[in-house]
Every structure is written in C-alpha cells, then in structure tokens.
Amino acid sequence: MSKSHYSVNNWLLVYTSGAIVHRHTREIRRLGEYQLKLLDCLVEHAGQTLSRNELTSLVWERRVIGDNSLSNAIHALRAALEDDGKQQRVIKTIPKKGYLLDPQFCELIEPQTEDESLPAAVSTMAKPHAAKNVIPTELAETMPTNTASDTEEFTTAVAKNIRYSLPPWSALSLLLLIGVIMLSGWLIFFHKNCDEMVAQEQQKNQYSNIRVFRIAAAVDEMNNEDLLKFNSTLKMLNQRLIARDAWMSVYYRADEQVLNYTFSIETTCANQQLAMTLYHWRIDNQRLNNTIFGETERKLNEIAPCKKS
C-alpha cells in the first residue's frame, strides 16, 4: 500500500504535493520538506519511541542543523495536525527518550476511495524547485522541485487516448490536435519554470556584516515590505556582529500566516545556523523582533572566540 494513503488525525498525507488534506473539510495545508519527512518517519514507526538522535539522523541525515530544528519541526507538525504541546494527543514527547506518534490516530486509506475526491488544488499543485547554490540545507524545506518528464507523460497519456477512443479523423484534424497538445505541453513547461524559486538579495550594502535574501518565485517583483517588520532588529544585530568580527546571511520566505526564517552566522573559525518557522507572525511585531533577536544572539554566543595565532 502506498504511503501517500496514510491519514493522521483525519489529515491525509499527499507526498507528491508536499501537503496534507483534511478528509472531511478538504482543507489543504502545505508542509516543508523536512516536516513532511519527519511526519513520514513518525508514521512508519507509529507506536515506537524514537530518540532525538534517531529522528535527526533519519530526517536530516548528515546535514548540519540548529539545536532547535527538531523541536521547531515537531511544533509545526502538531499545529498542522491540530495537536498541541500541552495535550500531546497525536505526537507525544517521551521525557528523556524522544517522540512517539500515537498509532490510534493513524489510518491506512484505500487509494481509490480518497484519490478520486482529492481537491484539484492538490492534484495540480506545482512541484517545488530548489534554489541553486544560495540556500542553506535546512531552508530546503520551503523550496519546490521539478520533474522534467511531466510534459512527456502528459503527451503520452493524450496520445493513448487518441489511439483507442477517438474516431478516424482527417490528416488536417490530426495535425491540428497534435499542435494543440504540443502547445499545452509548452505552456505547462513554461508555467513550472516561472514558478522556480530564487533568492533575491534585499537592501544591498545597508548592513556591513549582514546579507538578506528573500526567497520567492523568479517572476515575482522585488519586494522588501516584509523585511521592514524586523529591519530595526537587523540593525542592532549588525552592531553585535561587528563587535564579534562575525558575518550573517539571512534567508526568509513569507506569506500571510507563516514566516520561514533561516540565518547562518560565520566567524573565521566557526559557524552556527538556525531555521525557524513562525506562525501568525504579523500579529505581534514586538514578539517577532524579540524572537529573532533572542535566537540570533543565542547562536552568536554559542560560537567560541577564535584563538589568535
């Protein structure tokens, strides 16, 4: 049975679209790459307690991640699955041992029953593209991927339909139909490439020791309105970085409800990085800035001073 037909607390996992869909309300919720891999891992080991080291190894493999990456991902999954950190009905924290997914909330769904009723928004959702050579490993969970054979599969499927179900047409009609198919394939290919995600540098040269990148579709216009919400915090952090002879790169992607914020701090002898997913981040700007400043300062303090040669 395919993994794409597992349901957790009535949320159906749709791996090909990077989303979960509620079986009754049909609400769609997108998950990051590593959040989805973490949920997949917990589902495969439902009823078993997995340690933090086991989960980190299975989900992030050999990638270097921040201390809070697993905790943040667990928090995000609980929110998405309508669980919470207090009751812990679905994902339980086992003190000093790890995490456990309660098997009573897991269900294996017959593919034909659920697939036919999935919303079109899931079945046609664009597959993510990874921004090349500019994004830290943890930020990959917000990036889309592309499949080069999509257009070929589409054309083959239509061609089979013509062969077996259409009546004989004139040569001119067939040529016209082939032209329409080729045009459709080209439009699909063009649309997916327009959705490719890139890192757009914001406010160049405004901070001496900080570079800021907005993750967005390649066709999106440059927009730094969201950056203004934590601009003052970046100015204060820049002074801290100067004092420590350190540099920082910030990557963020924002929508109305969620801010994905990743930063990487480097000195001449060490580095630290952290990825955060902040929900309802537009509601309390003071709390947003306190969180960004506090977590960045904590990571900066974890870097030991470089020994002078």
- Fraction of residues in helices? 25-40%
The CATH class of the largest domain, by name, is Mainly Alpha
Number of helices: 9
Task: Could you tell me the CATH topology label of the largest domain.
Answer: Arc Repressor Mutant, subunit A
Task: Give the strand tally.
Answer: 12
Strand arrangement within the widest β-sheet reads 4-3-2-1-7
Low-confidence stretches: 112-117, 120-166
What is the percentage of strand-forming residues?
Answer: 15-25%
Largest sheet: 5 strands, antiparallel
CATH superfamily label of the largest domain:
Winged helix-like DNA-binding domain superfamily/Winged helix DNA-binding domain
Q: How would you state the average pLDDT, rounded?
A: 74
Shape: globular
Counting structural domains, the number is 3
Structural class: alpha+beta
Helix-strand pattern, N to C?
A: EEEEHHHEEEHHHHEEHEEEH
Textual characterization of the structure:
The protein is of the alpha+beta class. It has three domains: 3-109 and 120-125, Winged helix-like DNA-binding domain superfamily/Winged helix DNA-binding domain (Arc Repressor Mutant, subunit A), CATH 1.10.10.10; 150-194; 198-302, Double Stranded RNA Binding Domain (2-Layer Sandwich), CATH 3.30.160.100. It is built from nine helices and twelve strands. It has helices at residues 33-44, 52-60, 69-80, 111-115, 120-123, 150-165, 171-194, 231-243, 285-302, and strands spanning 6-8, 11-14, 19-22, 28-30, 91-94, 98-101, 106-108, 197-202, 210-217, 247-254, 258-266, 271-279. It has a five-stranded antiparallel sheet, with no helix packed on it. The protein has a five-stranded mixed sheet with strand order 8-9-10-11-12. Strands 5-6 form a two-stranded antiparallel sheet. Strand 1 and strand 2 (11-14) form a beta hairpin. Helix 6 runs antiparallel to helix 7 (171-194) and helix 8 (231-243) packs parallel to helix 9 (285-302). The protein starts with 5 loop residues before the first strand and ends in a 7-residue tail after the last helix.
